[in-house]
Amino acid sequence: MSPLIVVGALADLRTVVKGCDSRSCRATGGRTVCQPAAVSITVKLEDLAGVVAERGPDAYLVTVRDTRPHIVAVAVAFRDGLLVVGAGRRTAINVEDRPLATLLWPVSAEHPKHSLLVDGTARLSDDGEWLVITPTSAILHRAGGRRRALADDGTLDDPTDVLPA
Predict the structure, then answer these.
(1) DSSP β-ladder status, 58-65 and 68-75
(2) Residue 121: how many CB atoms within 10 A of its CB?
(3) Residue 10 belongs to what domain range?
């Protein structure tokens, strides 16, 4: 059954489905109206050390090279409110030119519902070996509804679901 989208009379976009079992649903005029789950949950910066410790050290660092993203796998340490990662040559050049950076802890078996994204301002350590990131914001981002598990053989169950006709 495809959901109907109600716009206009409602202050925000809501999905209307019959028999919804979500806690965010309510009955309205004989219909069940469901508020979509929040896509992002703000992580307070004072709570970030605990969230990072829960996720572990393995993350991806995103910096910008010219106009393209540059993504590397890193091990993250949290020290005195700062995030510290190793800095390769390209990453160091990127940060000198454009200090904004993002760390991503993707969904995992331990945390299947949300990725952790931390934005911050990066600088090189005095010895140039480390990247020191001052976090400016952090969110837990819900894994999208279109995220599908692959079949046992590594293929999509029905590739026509995602390919144009």
Answers:
(1) antiparallel
(2) 13
(3) 4-34
Alpha-carbon distance of 124 to 96, in angstroms, equals: 8
Residue 165's SS3 state is coil
Report the domain count for the chain.
Answer: 2
pTM passes above 0.85:
no
Residue 44, Cβ neighbours under 10 Å: how many? 9
Is there a single domain that holds both residue 20 and residue 100? no
Q: Is the dihedral of CA 80, 83, 89, 94 positive or negative?
A: negative
CA–CA gap between residue 77 and residue 83 (Å, rounded): 6
Whether residue 97 lies inside any domain: the answer is yes
* Dihedral pair phi/psi, residue 119, rounded to 5°: -95, 150
**Are 65 and 110 contained in the same domain?**
yes
Query: Is the same domain home to 102 and 135?
Result: yes
Neighbour tally for 88: CB within 10 Å: 14
Structure tokens at 80: 């005195």
Provide the residue type at 136 as one letter. Answer: T
Q: Does any domain span residue 151? A: no
| pLDDT tens readout for residues 59-117 | 999 999 988 999 999 999 999 999 999 989 999 999 999 999 999 999 988 988 899 99
49-to-46, 68, 122, 144 alpha-carbon distances in Å: 7, 29, 17, 25
